[in-house]
Amino acid sequence: MPNDPRRRPLPRLRRLLVIATGNWLARGYLAVVAASVAVMFLFPDSAFAAGPLLLTAPLSLLGVVLPVGPGTEGGGAATAFAVGFWTVWLLLCALVNAAVLGALAARSATTAPAERPADRERSARPRPEGIRALLTPAVDNWLVRGYLAVVAAALGFFLYAVYLSPDPGFAGIWPLMATAPLGILAFLLASPAEYLSLSWLSPLIFSAGVALSGLVNASLLGLLARRLRAPEPRPAG
Predict the structure, then answer these.
(1) Maximum Cα–Cα distance for the chain, whole Å?
(2) Nearest to 102 by CA among 214, 177, 23, 34
(3) How far apart are CA 79 and CA 173, in angstroms?
(4) Contact 50/163 with Cβ under 8 angstroms?
(5) DSSP, residue by residue, 151-169
(6) What is the pTM for the complete model shown?
(7) 195 burial class (0-12, 13-18, 19+ CB within 10 angstroms)?
(8) Of 150, 215, 165, which is closest to residue 186 (Cα–Cα)?
(9) Is the peptide bond before 181 cis (omega within 30 degrees of 0)?
(10) pLDDT tens track for 214-228
(11) pLDDT digits over 122-168, tens only?
(12) Cα separation of 203 and 191, whole Å?
């Protein structure tokens, strides 16, 4: 029956699409990504060609470790498959990021529904405030805890390479990729110390910025996970 409270919820993918296109912030982000893809094809040799990859970070940067993508050798079917796989991957990354922004915008615009007894009991408990309220979504499900574990491992490897390894190489690329796009700001903030005879301070600034970026990303992912788990609103009547 239409009003059966036990009816099946929307599939997760469909709900993801609804959240990713449900408000102006998410739709605006998707429009920017689409424009960046057009620029990539029009000016493939320019600095803006990396726009789609950066705009869909951090998930899109995982494609760096995948064996397929643009530039895959082999020609013919192998190249077509690689380009197709990269296109689908980029689209999925864009949808996830759009859904994160959509969940963030919807949180501030959603009004509270009529409370059930269980809801009133939960609302009577003290709620976290301030920074604790912002960070709660970053630790309340396995998805974000797994993401934070990846960030911690990447940051730990970076610190080991900088302070204990004789040749750190490009160790900073891993925490940068794990926390992009905010991690890019951490890199920019730490860079001036390299030119001010304060090279010892640069890794500390970068590490603090990466840790903060990881927490922000985890909070946004946690908020999206909450939206996907939330019961579907039922029509009245």
Answers:
(1) 72
(2) 23
(3) 27
(4) no
(5) HHHHHHHHHHHHHT-S--T
(6) 0.71
(7) exposed
(8) 215
(9) yes
(10) 999 998 888 888 888
(11) 444 555 555 666 677 777 788 889 999 999 999 999 999 998 988 88
(12) 9
